Every structure is written in C-alpha cells, then in structure tokens.
Amino acid sequence: MTHQVIVTEHAPQPIGPYSQAIKGCGTWVFLAGQIALHPQTGALVGGEDAAAQAEQVMENLGAVLAASGATWAEVVKTTVYLVDLADFVAVNQVYGRHFGLQPGPARACVQVAALPKGARVEIDAIALLPEGVA
Q1: CATH architecture of the domain with residue range 3-128
Q2: What is the arithmetic mean of pLDDT over 73-99?
Q3: Which one of 109, 110, 114, 121 is the catalytic residue?
C-alpha cells in the first residue's frame, strides 16, 4: 500500500518529524494537528485569545485540505485539543463557521495539559475524498 505526503507552503511547516498530511488507503486524507502558527513566519498568532488562535488553526487546516484535494465537506472526523475547556464556546463558534450549515464531522474535544509553542488550541482531521479523486 502506498501513500502520498501532502505539503503546502500555505500552512506552517511541521515543527517535528511528521507530515502536514498523508493521503493513502485509497481516498483517505489524514491531517496532522495544526496550531495557530503563521505559515510564513512560524510565529504563534492570536496571543492568549483562543478564538483568534482557532481562526488561524482552521485557516491552516483549510490550506492542507486544499493541497490534498479535499474541502471542509469531505472532513469526516476531527479532534480538538484545548488547554482550557473554558475556551470551548469561543473555539466552537470559529469551528462552526468553517463547516457552514452542513452537518459537521464526528468530533472529539479534550482538555490537555499543554500544547506545542504555548498554543491554546490544536485541531487534527481526517477527510474522505469523493470517488474518482485520488
């Protein structure tokens, strides 16, 4: 079984030994978790504002989705990692805007002790491309 590494300059480059996304197993795309890093500078954006960070996270995920040939409509599962569950409502509003009126994907949301670079939000995703798109 082969897989394809997805790379885009429109999302932050990995800060460790991992890929932005992997396309494999037919039409599945597995997106690595994104934090609120600016794609060109690598600096964390949004300060302590979880909603501002979530906006950058979703922009980064959108760029990786686009590079893989997927859209928000093909996302079937996400995991949201929050340093503080008190940020859930603010992050959920940003998250919901990106998925529009369609039913959103399956999702888990967990509180974690810490995230890389002092981020408050991280989100990963799995997408299933339509038949004929590989």
Answers
A1: 2-Layer Sandwich (3.30)
A2: 96
A3: 109
